[in-house]
Amino acid sequence: MIETKHVDFYYSGFHALKDISMRMEARTVTALIGPSGCGKSTFLRLFNRMNDLIDDTRVSGECLIDGEDIYHKSVAVDELRKRVGMVFQKPNPFPKSIFENVAYGLRVNDVRDKSFIACRVEASLRAAALWGEVKDKLRESAFALSGGQQQRLCIARALAVSPSVLLMDEPASALDPISTSKIEELIADLKRDYTIVIVTHNMQQAARVSDKTGFFMMGELVEFGETRMIFSDPVNEQTRNYVNGRFG
Amino acid sequence: MKWSRRFVERIIEGLFTLSGGVTSLIILLVVLFLFREGAGLFTSPSLEKGYTLCVHASNLTGEIDAREVKRIFDGEITRWEEVGAGEMTGEIDVFHASELPRVEDEAVMPRVLEEIVGGRRGIIAFLPDEFLPAGESVVKRLAAGRVTPGDFFAGDEWQPTVSPAPRLGVLPLVTGTLLVSFFAIILALVPGLGVAIYLAELAGSRARGWLKPAIELLAGIPSVVYGFFGLVVLVPFIQEVFDLPVGESALAGSVVLAIMALPTIITIAEDAIRGVPRALREASLALGATRWQTIYRVVIPRASSGITAAAVLGIGRAVGETMAVLMVTGNAAVMPRSLFEPVRTIPATIAAELGEAPSGGTHYRALFLLGCILFAITMVINLSAEFIATRGQGKGEGA
Ligand SMILES: Nc1ncnc2c1ncn2[C@@H]1O[C@H](COP(=O)(O)OP(=O)(O)O)[C@@H](O)[C@H]1O
Ligand SMILES: [Mg+2]
Description:
The complex is a heterodimer.
Chain A: E1 2-11, E2 14-24, E3 29-33, H1 40-44, E4 57-65, E5 68-69, H2 77-83, E6 84-87, H3 98-107, H4 114-127, H5 131-134, H6 147-159, E7 165-169, H7 177-190, E8 195-199, H8 203-209, E9 212-217, E10 220-226, H9 227-232, H10 237-243
Parallel strand pairs in A: 3-8, 3-9, 6-7, 7-8
Antiparallel strand pairs in A: 1-2, 1-4, 4-5, 9-10
Helix pairs in contact in A: 3-4, 3-6, 4-6, 6-7
Chain B: H1 2-39, E1 51-56, H2 66-73, E2 93-96, H3 109-118, E3 123-128, E4 139-141, H4 149-154, E5 158-159, E6 167-168, H5 171-202, H6 205-220, H7 223-242, H8 250-274, H9 278-286, H10 291-320, H11 323-328, H12 346-353, H13 362-394
Parallel strand pairs in B: 2-3
Antiparallel strand pairs in B: 1-3, 1-4, 5-6
Helix pairs in contact in B: 1-13, 5-8, 5-10, 6-8, 7-8, 8-10, 9-10, 10-13, 12-13
The structure holds adenosine-5'-diphosphate (ADP) and magnesium ion.
């Protein structure tokens, strides 16, 4: 379960997130929608503390994962990132073999047991619905795969370290429709085991894959609720305009 | 209006094309000049210019090669049986032009020579051409050997000014150059990479703000200044620490070159590291890798071709460097056996000797051919750097 309480976020002088309080239940898919630059990615990157990489930023309020404040001093960021996996907008496999891409998270975790690694790699590739396509070419470069396959490889890579949360930042925006629908099917599968937060530009996609949807605008969470409600009968006028495409 | 603008653009275009053409032409001319001057070496006599080797007319020896001449005059060969096809026997009686008596009237010199040679059957005499007696004489000229490519490229002695037969073997110089440059890179690579990684990955904007200009400044310091530094600081230090008779050594050259190659290595390696897409770093960090794990498992492997190119270009810089090396290596043109002995590099040799070598002479030609060798070495280095860099680009860019 992920929860934020009155979170504000600043890029030096710029107030990018304003007083966001939100609760995402375990094993659900939450979609974040809203016009470009409204703070969706910033919000998503709070949960694996990727925003820490940017100089001169500041968070206030509380960010809890399974009840633990992840911005507390005692939290080791690299440990947190093993529990909270991330899939990026553009597939970004390492310039390594398919196998090594998936094994990477284990290796940096000092896992040395070869058979265990092989096991995890296979399981992760199966979970990412990629095993059948790559099982005979695990030693080949990841760049030999198509864009859609690369993105599923990146999902497998994130799954290999056994996270409980999966953050996805527009994971299908660089893909063709067939690859996109594969990723969407995959999300529906992964929901059984992972808490998923997905940023998307695509209204239909949000409607198809998510249980709950949050609509952001200019750093504020305008409306958050059951996906069905957000798309059929939103409370807020701005939300209605946005989901009906009369906006941004 | 429109017409005149098009006309001006034409002219500007023409100027650019012209300057490109002129530059290429100049480069071509320099190379051609270098090779033309150098190529004459193998048709040059191996003896000092203006002199001829002579023997007694009864001596049947036909030709003596340059190496034998040197050994005879060095006293290493003392009997005629050891040279040529053994046409002659007995002690070799060496006579050098510097032993000629002073005479008032130079017209009598040919007679003096005839007397000297006529009286000594076993003589081998190194005599000035201008005084050799004309026509039938007891003074018999030996055919002068030519400098052979074997002597030049495989010779291990570089003594271009010994009389009567200079030795022009380039191996000590080539070896010296490669040794000094190679160790320079070994010394420069670790700190260079360290600084590059620090600058690209770790340094805050403040540290970068003063370190970058400092490194650029390092690149701008004239090499004589590095030479001074090496001479005054490094050479005594090396002498002290390694307890050497002299501190001027290959090691001193390598250290100075390493410092001089640092800016090249740092700048190019830093560019390569910065060129690694941010997305790869984020992917690694997002999997729980630490910053250092990310650097050595993802960033450096991805930047490796650029880093290799940095090292190779650093070598290129070192190989051609002249002044600083000339000042600190001791300049002994002998085959280097260790880092702690004086050595002589190709550029240092050219710089030191070209002024004394008579234009058009054997020595002069040999120096130009050395220049060609240097040119070839740096060209190979630059081409391989380019090859490595372009091969690296293909890797990791989609297909
Ligand atoms: N590194 C950064 N430094 C400063 N401002 C940033 C940075 N990243 C994003 N922003 C600003 O924060 C706002 C939210 O950005 P982002 O979270 O990327 O929006 P979204 O993902 O919804 O398109 C934007 O106005 C953007 O300009
Ligand atoms: Mg975004």
